[in-house]
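Chapter summary example.
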Amino acid sequence: MTPFLIGVLILDFLLQLLSKTVLFGKFNTGVSFGLVPGLGRIIAVVFYVLFLVTVFKLPKRNLGVLFLVIGGMGNLLARVLWGGVWDYLTLPGLPFWFNLSDVMISTGVILYLTSYSFVSTRRH
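The structure predicted for these 124 residues follows.
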Protein backbone atom coordinates (compact mmCIF):
# COMPACT_ATOMS: atom_id res chain seq x y z
CA MET A 1 0.00 0.00 0.00
CA THR A 2 2.82 2.42 0.79
CA PRO A 3 4.27 2.41 -2.78
CA PHE A 4 0.77 3.22 -4.05
CA LEU A 5 0.45 6.15 -1.62
CA ILE A 6 3.92 7.41 -2.55
CA GLY A 7 2.82 7.21 -6.20
CA VAL A 8 -0.27 9.30 -5.39
CA LEU A 9 1.98 11.81 -3.61
CA ILE A 10 4.19 12.10 -6.72
CA LEU A 11 1.13 12.33 -9.00
CA ASP A 12 -0.35 15.11 -6.84
CA PHE A 13 2.92 17.05 -6.94
CA LEU A 14 3.12 16.72 -10.73
CA LEU A 15 -0.53 17.79 -11.11
CA GLN A 16 0.10 20.79 -8.85
CA LEU A 17 3.17 21.69 -10.93
CA LEU A 18 1.18 21.38 -14.17
CA SER A 19 -1.69 23.45 -12.72
CA LYS A 20 0.79 26.08 -11.57
CA THR A 21 2.41 26.17 -15.01
CA VAL A 22 -0.83 26.58 -16.99
CA LEU A 23 -2.55 28.62 -14.25
CA PHE A 24 -5.43 26.18 -13.90
CA GLY A 25 -7.28 25.89 -10.61
CA LYS A 26 -6.72 28.05 -7.59
CA PHE A 27 -3.56 28.92 -5.68
CA ASN A 28 -4.18 28.56 -1.96
CA THR A 29 -1.81 30.36 0.41
CA GLY A 30 -4.01 29.76 3.43
CA VAL A 31 -4.78 26.60 5.30
CA SER A 32 -7.84 24.42 4.71
CA PHE A 33 -10.43 26.05 2.48
CA GLY A 34 -8.19 29.14 2.09
CA LEU A 35 -8.49 30.26 5.72
CA VAL A 36 -5.75 32.54 7.14
CA PRO A 37 -4.22 33.47 3.76
CA GLY A 38 -0.52 34.20 3.79
CA LEU A 39 0.23 32.19 6.95
CA GLY A 40 -0.33 28.79 5.36
CA ARG A 41 3.38 27.95 5.05
CA ILE A 42 4.21 28.69 8.69
CA ILE A 43 1.08 27.02 10.05
CA ALA A 44 1.60 23.97 7.81
CA VAL A 45 5.19 23.40 8.93
CA VAL A 46 4.37 23.81 12.62
CA PHE A 47 1.31 21.58 12.52
CA TYR A 48 2.98 18.92 10.37
CA VAL A 49 5.93 18.65 12.77
CA LEU A 50 3.58 18.49 15.76
CA PHE A 51 1.47 15.90 13.94
CA LEU A 52 4.49 13.69 13.19
CA VAL A 53 5.66 13.87 16.80
CA THR A 54 2.19 12.80 17.92
CA VAL A 55 1.97 10.00 15.33
CA PHE A 56 5.22 8.43 16.48
CA LYS A 57 3.92 8.39 20.04
CA LEU A 58 0.77 6.46 19.07
CA PRO A 59 0.83 2.87 20.31
CA LYS A 60 -0.68 1.61 17.05
CA ARG A 61 -0.47 3.08 13.57
CA ASN A 62 -3.09 2.32 10.96
CA LEU A 63 -3.85 3.01 7.32
CA GLY A 64 -5.68 6.23 8.19
CA VAL A 65 -2.56 7.65 9.82
CA LEU A 66 -0.49 6.68 6.78
CA PHE A 67 -2.93 8.53 4.49
CA LEU A 68 -2.71 11.58 6.77
CA VAL A 69 1.09 11.55 6.79
CA ILE A 70 1.42 11.19 3.00
CA GLY A 71 -1.34 13.72 2.22
CA GLY A 72 0.13 16.22 4.66
CA MET A 73 3.55 15.72 3.11
CA GLY A 74 2.15 16.50 -0.34
CA ASN A 75 0.65 19.81 0.73
CA LEU A 76 3.65 20.67 2.90
CA LEU A 77 6.06 20.15 0.00
CA ALA A 78 4.08 22.54 -2.20
CA ARG A 79 3.79 25.12 0.59
CA VAL A 80 7.53 25.07 1.26
CA LEU A 81 8.43 25.31 -2.46
CA TRP A 82 5.77 27.76 -3.65
CA GLY A 83 4.30 29.35 -0.53
CA GLY A 84 0.95 27.64 -1.10
CA VAL A 85 -0.74 24.72 -2.80
CA TRP A 86 -2.35 24.49 -6.20
CA ASP A 87 -5.88 23.18 -5.91
CA TYR A 88 -6.90 21.74 -9.26
CA LEU A 89 -10.02 19.69 -8.45
CA THR A 90 -13.56 20.93 -7.89
CA LEU A 91 -16.99 19.37 -7.92
CA PRO A 92 -20.12 20.98 -9.37
CA GLY A 93 -22.06 22.80 -6.69
CA LEU A 94 -19.12 23.07 -4.26
CA PRO A 95 -17.62 26.53 -3.70
CA PHE A 96 -14.05 25.35 -3.12
CA TRP A 97 -11.14 23.69 -4.89
CA PHE A 98 -8.91 20.88 -3.60
CA ASN A 99 -6.12 18.50 -4.66
CA LEU A 100 -5.19 14.82 -4.24
CA SER A 101 -3.32 15.54 -1.02
CA ASP A 102 -6.52 17.00 0.42
CA VAL A 103 -8.39 13.86 -0.65
CA MET A 104 -5.75 11.71 1.06
CA ILE A 105 -5.99 13.77 4.26
CA SER A 106 -9.80 13.57 4.31
CA THR A 107 -9.67 9.83 3.58
CA GLY A 108 -7.11 9.39 6.35
CA VAL A 109 -9.34 11.14 8.88
CA ILE A 110 -12.30 8.96 7.90
CA LEU A 111 -10.23 5.74 8.01
CA TYR A 112 -8.70 6.67 11.36
CA LEU A 113 -12.02 7.60 12.98
CA THR A 114 -13.73 4.54 11.52
CA SER A 115 -11.02 2.18 12.76
CA TYR A 116 -11.09 3.85 16.17
CA SER A 117 -14.86 3.49 16.48
CA PHE A 118 -14.71 -0.17 15.42
CA VAL A 119 -11.99 -0.87 17.97
CA SER A 120 -13.99 0.93 20.67
CA THR A 121 -17.19 -1.00 19.96
CA ARG A 122 -15.43 -4.38 19.84
CA ARG A 123 -13.91 -3.93 23.28
CA HIS A 124 -17.26 -3.36 25.02
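To summarize the output: The beta strands are 26-28, 85-87.
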